[in-house]
From TrEMBL:
This is Fe2OG dioxygenase domain-containing protein. SUPFAM superfamilies: Clavaminate synthase-like. It comes from Massariosphaeria phaeospora. Belongs to the iron/ascorbate-dependent oxidoreductase family. Pfam families: 2OG-FeII_Oxy, DIOX_N. GO terms for biological process: small molecule biosynthetic process. One of its GO terms (molecular function) is metal ion binding. Keywords: Iron, Metal-binding, Oxidoreductase. Residues 178-284 form the Fe2OG dioxygenase domain.
Amino acid sequence: MHFFDSFPDDVPTAPLVTLSLNKLVAEDAEEKARFFEASKSLGFFYLDMRGCAEGEELLDGANDMFDLMEEFYGLPVEEKLKYDFAAQGSYFGYKGIGAEVIDGKGTKDKNEIYNISKDDLLSLSDRIPAPDVINNNRKGSASYVQANNKILTTLFSSLASSLKLPASSFTDLHRIASSSGCHIRFIRAPPQPISERSLSLGEHTDFGSLTILFNRIGGLQVLLPGTSDWVYVRPMPGCAIINLGDAMVKFSAGILRSNLHRVVAPPGRQEDMVRYSLVYFSRPEHEVKMRRLEGGLVDAIEHNGADEVEESTKDWLKRRHQGRKVQFFKGKESWEGAMGTEARL
Ligand SMILES: O=C(O)CCC(=O)C(=O)O
Ligand SMILES: [Fe+2]
């Protein structure tokens, strides 16, 4: 596929390890150890989905979702804006270019986003209005949620066992039929004229637990720990890019890492391409408290003041996402107030 081949060879890239889903499903001890190490050191890795039934299902689903995303973004902007529910405080639906700030100075973002709620797709909440292209594919989108969930179950169980916690420690906080902020995200960024280039998506850590991301062209960058070097994550065929979010940091009292990342214009000859990106965000159930778990390796970590602050997942999400919206932005302080665990860096 031309997407992957067109990524340049002469830009600095992040040294993500590639883990095999097949081996993690088989509970291969060495692979589990590599997974734990990647989750502590960088919090980003590739997961090779190929040659594994669950992985192939996810890859097929992701291809369908990319088609759906292109169809959705092909709608006229007035039509898409009908599904912008930010004024009602909703996280789901459409966000036009420039509706969010990407830094403490108030610079506007450069991408369109459409968020589709897991609870809506699985009929666990009221139906959120959506255009026909999206409504006509509810079944396919719900299957995509289920396919992500299968992979997440494998990953959560593996991490719990590496932390010497009961195997269901994380899956019990992420039951698919419980109300949560899990969602599919479609992102579209048009090419940026060289003279006006800025970030498409500002630096952040993800709010939730685990993020399953599919990129076809470059633009995603991670900040290498302990440096000021932003380097590209090269998209790899057959692989998802997985990263840990702040909830995993909280649950593990900082053993696991959520790393800062951002999106810039695609590199080299990809600069003229429209960038589409597909994300599935898993988040703890709404009522789960964002606090350290008890037991296993977590108990060996000393307590600090941050442990005493208990916010429910629902309140945490609200604080984090409102601080990024243009209408709530009041300067550097409101920006920093929306920080999660990245503020500790
Ligand atoms: O588009 C990407 O590659 C990353 C998007 C992202 O980091 C996010 O939506 O949280
Ligand atoms: Fe992210």
